[in-house]
Amino acid sequence: MIAAYSRKSLALGIPGLVLQIGCYYLLSNLVIFPKNPNTVPHATTGVLLELGMFAGNILFIIGLCFYAKSKGYSGLWGLLGVFSCIGLLILAILPDTTKSPQ
To answer: What 8-state DSSP symbol labels residue 27?
Structure first.
């Protein structure tokens, strides 16, 4: 595994995944299914949370691009990040092609 790409992958992928999941959680609990149905959230709350989810998804995809490069594959494999954690699992089970033969 190429260490430089692996570090970039962690630096972008983990915050992207946390942002994506956090915004989804807040969107579902504050806007879609609020605990108190009499409260109406601001109109911009939903839009900002949707943009946060989108930004998190973009960061996660870029992080997976670096992860694919660290394993010796093309960065296009990072587009599996569209499928979120399932894309990460698919990329994680691919064999590392940068290993030197023994």
So the answer is: I
What's the token pair of residue 13? 């992928």
Q: Give the range of the structural domain holding residue 88, as residue numbers without chain letter.
A: 3-93
87: closest CA among 97, 79, 95? 79
* Residue 101: pLDDT over 70: no
In a domain, residue 33? The reply is yes
DSSP count for the chain of H helices, then E strands: 3, 0
Calpha distance 30→44 (Å, rounded): 12
Is the CB of residue 78 less than 8 Å from the CB of residue 68? Answer: yes
Residue 2 contacts residue 69 (beta carbons within 8 Å): yes
Q: What's residue 84's pLDDT? A: 85
